[in-house]
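dumping this here so i dont lose it
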């Protein structure tokens, strides 16, 4: 299964997990972003969902200061 991670724009990794596909990973990421926004630190206005591909991380989702 592919590996995914959700991080804030300032580089803090909030969660890493395996998911069967990008859609499942995005659903999990939206849930985590929603929880994290409840106590959103000022530097965490943006979030990135990344997928590990051939040993490198590629951005597959991005959320700005507005909730997804």
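and the seq i came up w/
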């Amino acid at each position: 299964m592919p590996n995914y991670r959700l991080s804030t724009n300032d580089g803090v990794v909030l969660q890493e997990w395996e998911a069967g596909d990008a859609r499942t990973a995005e659903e999990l990421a939206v849930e985590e972003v929603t929880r994290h926004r409840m106590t959103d630190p000022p530097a965490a206005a943006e979030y990135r969902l990344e997928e590990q591909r051939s040993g490198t991380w590629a951005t597959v989702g991005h959320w700005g200061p507005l909730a997804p």
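The two ends are 25 Å apart (CA to CA).
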